[in-house]
Write a structure and sequence with these properties.
The chain has a domain of about 200 residues. By secondary structure, the protein is α+β, with helices and mostly antiparallel strands. A five-stranded antiparallel beta sheet has the order 3-4-5-6-7. The chain is rod-shaped and about 160 Å long. The protein contains six helices and seven strands, in the order H-H-H-H-H-E-E-E-E-E-E-H-E. Helix 3 packs antiparallel against helix 4. Helix content is about 45%, strand content about 15%. Strand 5 and strand 6 form a beta hairpin.
């Protein structure tokens, strides 16, 4: 090491920099040895030999413990990686499955809506056809029953024949039953054709509890004579398809309701209902039920056995059950 000193005889002006340099002498550092590849390889080999020797000097128990720690750490890292991969994979799968389920539900809804629209369209068309056919037949029934009001009136005011035979209006009344025969199922008839189309003083069935649909359902009387047909009238109250049990392929049934109303008072004298069965082009009624109200019962025929009341209920008969009813 070399220290730089001033000669005793030399005098220089004072300087702060020179004073600090004198107080802190400069030491020349030795030159650093250059690191070569050979030297680096030798150092690495020496470190490896030293580490092996230290390992060999360790007791077997310590080496086993170190090995177990290494293996445990490795297994733990492997399990953690597996859990992470499984979680990510599960989330991706759940997301994909949820998206697929949503898509499937959407498509199923679209298919169901499409089928429902088509089914509803077909059902609506069928119901329209059924309603039109049932209404047209109900009008014919109404008109036929109203015609009875005129026929019974004529029967009661025309003079009797000398030989006890029915007058012209009575014969026409019996013949008129053929009109209603075309509108009702034969299974609903109570009388055979001969009795039905022949005038009789007594109805060929129990008129107090049952009714043949071809006969007059209700005739209003003023005393012994049938009332003027202008004083009361039959009307259609409703024609209703039975939709709760029907589809586009089975929409064949409708219910019709008729009312017989007194014009002056508005009182309902009787009402009737029947089921209409449609076959695609036309149909007939059956299951006829007729109810005579209290107001209507006050204007029934005095007896149920006069020629003018044949087929009419006797006093107090308020309900006619359909054939086979209880």
């Amino acid at each position: 090491m070399t220290v730089k000193q001033h000669n005793a005889g030399e005098h220089e002006p004072p300087s702060p920099e020179r004073d600090r340099a004198a107080a802190d002498p400069v030491v020349d550092a030795p030159a650093r040895e250059k690191l070569t590849g050979v030297r680096l390889e030798a150092d690495l080999a020496a470190w490896w030999v030293s580490r092996r020797r230290r390992g060999e000097r360790r007791p077997p128990e310590e080496r086993s413990q170190i090995l177990r720690r290494v293996l445990g750490t490795g297994m733990g890292l492997a399990i953690l990686a597996l859990v992470i991969v499984s979680t990510v994979t599960s989330r991706i799968f759940d997301t994909a499955r949820s998206a697929n389920d949503t898509r499937i539900t959407s498509l199923e809804g679209q298919v169901a809506d499409g089928l429902a629209v088509r089914a509803d369209t077909h059902l609506a068309e069928r119901m329209t056809q059924l309603s039109r056919s049932a209404a047209a037949s109900a009008i014919r029934v109404r008109d036929a029953q109203q015609t009875y009001a005129t026929l019974y009136r004529e029967s009661s005011i025309q003079p009797d024949t000398d030989n006890g035979a029915p007058n012209t209006a009575m014969v026409a009344t019996a013949e008129h039953r053929r009109v209603l025969a075309t509108l009702f199922s034969r299974s609903s008839y109570l009388a055979d054709d001969h009795d039905a189309y022949t005038w009789q003083n007594v109805a060929p069935f129990d008129a107090n509890s049952r009714i043949d649909p071809r006969f007059a359902w209700y005739v209003r009387y003023d005393g012994p004579q049938a009332s003027d047909p202008a004083t009361y009238a039959w009307a259609i109250e409703a024609v209703m398809p039975e939709v709760h049990t029907q589809t586009a392929d089975t929409a064949t049934r409708a219910r019709a309701v008729w009312l017989c109303r007194e014009k002056a008072s508005g009182n309902i004298l009787a009402w009737a209902s029947a089921i209409y069965t449609y076959d695609g082009t036309g149909g007939v009624f059956d299951n006829l039920a007729v109810v005579v109200t209290t107001a209507g019962a006050q204007h029934q025929s005095p007896t149920g056995t006069t020629p003018h009341a044949a087929g009419q209920p006797g006093p107090g008969a308020l309900f006619f059950r359909p054939k086979g009813g209880t």
